[in-house]
Amino acid sequence: MRFCKPAETQPCYYCEKIETVEQEGGYPIRDGIYTFENYIFRCAWHARFTCSKCGTQHHFDWFHWCPSTEELVCGDCRKPTLKPVAFWDRTYAYEFYCDECDDYHLDLLYAEFQGAHPWQLGNRTIVSNIESQEPWTPLWSPKAIRTGEDIELIEALKLPNRIVELREDLKYTLFRVLRHAVPEDEIDRSETQESWEANAEDYADLTQIDMTGDPNRQFIIDPALWSLVGDVSGLSVLDAGCGHGYLTRVLATKGAKAVGVDFSGPFIHYCTRVESEMNLGCKFYRASITDMHELASKSFDIVVSNIVMGDVLDYKSAFKEIARVLKDDGRFIWSNVHPVFGRTAGAIDVRFPRDSQRGESRYLKMIDRYFDSGGEQYTWMKSRPSWGFVRTLEEYSKALKDAGFVISEILEPRPTPEVIQQNPREMAFDADRWTHFIIYECVKRL
Ligand SMILES: C[S@@+](CC[C@H](N)C(=O)[O-])C[C@H]1O[C@@H](n2cnc3c(N)ncnc32)[C@H](O)[C@@H]1O
Ligand SMILES: [Zn+2]
Ligand SMILES: [Zn+2]
Ligand SMILES: [Zn+2]
User: Fold this and answer.
1) Is 422 helix (H, G, I), strand (E, B) or coil?
2) Using a 6 Å cutoff on CB, does residue 262 contact ligand 1?
3) Based on the domain organization, do 275 and 205 belong to the same domain?
4) What distance in Å separates the CA atoms of residue 109 and residue 88, rounded to the nearest whole number?
5) What local confidence, expressed as pLDDT, does residue 135 receive?
6) What is the number of structural domains in the chain?
7) How much is the pTM?
8) Are residue 113 and residue 152 in the same domain, yes or no?
9) Is 423 in the pocket of ligand 1 (CB under 6 A)?
10) pLDDT one-digit tens code per residue, 144-175
11) Are residue 303 and residue 395 in the same domain, yes or no?
């Protein structure tokens, strides 16, 4: 068991919050006998459980209980949508479609509010998930089964002032360690390439979902990117830093003469193999986008580049090389992790409980050392560390100007309410509170 039992306990963080809003006969504040890396004390009801399907442990708010199969199932096994409903101090619940019941089940906290938590129903089988003698004690139940109040999505997504809340909750907070950027001249270019060669397979698995892409791409970046790119039929378009080639292939299906360039051998190998199966007419080259000598000057109408520049060490040369291959008045449309809100070096996420799956558990982002540009190593899932680079808005805009570009538009994309409802975990109280991405449209004006 990974639970750590502290020598001294505090009242359960969640019980205390519920107690202040439960009208009907009071709510017991249980001892917070479990604590996690976040130093938030939690009772057994509000600790972690193990998924009956995949065996993974998660924060309790990521589960629902299926009364007919008597299984506790996590949100990785059944993707939730957002149900706007006011209960206790919450304004929404996660709603999970259960294929075994052909019905919907709500998350564990909502179940507890209704009196439909497995422990309230007398089911003790899931006790083995918790290293505790009597987790259901003290047992509390509402007098009758009740339902939360239906509210509008827009109301559900109004967040109270997190800074005020933070002040109140500060006693529980543990800040993530601040990471500093490494100056770019101390980083070897071959290292940036090697990590993308080693990680190509993981990245493709993670971001390639047929032709739709990952949620950030599908719901946030793509709609904004395409609103700038417009009709590409008959145009020559370069996808600079094409990775597994998703964007190159979509360009080709929209009628462009599409070329993808990436310096990672495994990516180009993957792209070439997929092209030989799909025959979309895409061409792929392995090259650094800082030196694409195989491509003629002034040969493209548009260059697109999706979330690449933050991975390119010598971005100034990349901009110049992109300007070289573009026709006069050609457009360069590129997305990037946002230099302020998307940065991780010099930034701190205040999230607690840290294992909570809900977006509002991220209280705020704090940015420091904004001017310390440079590289930082990051990992996603189980990948090897790669180098990413943070630069200021001014540095990017100056480098664009030096390469002969004029910025004609900047977009800071955000998801629509429908997208938030269907993808609450990725989008609610996160992508709708600050922009993670920035998209530039630039025109070559030498
Ligand atoms: C975050 S991935 C994005 C890939 C792709 N554009 C997409 O939308 O999925 C960054 C890509 O930049 C590539 N890259 C980084 N530096 C590069 C360079 N100097 N030349 C060419 N590709 C580079 C990496 O190999 C990787 O494929
Ligand atoms: Zn509790
Ligand atoms: Zn699971
Ligand atoms: Zn069910």
Assistant:
1) helix
2) yes
3) yes
4) 9
5) 58
6) 2
7) 0.81
8) yes
9) no
10) 999 999 999 999 998 877 776 776 666 655 55
11) yes
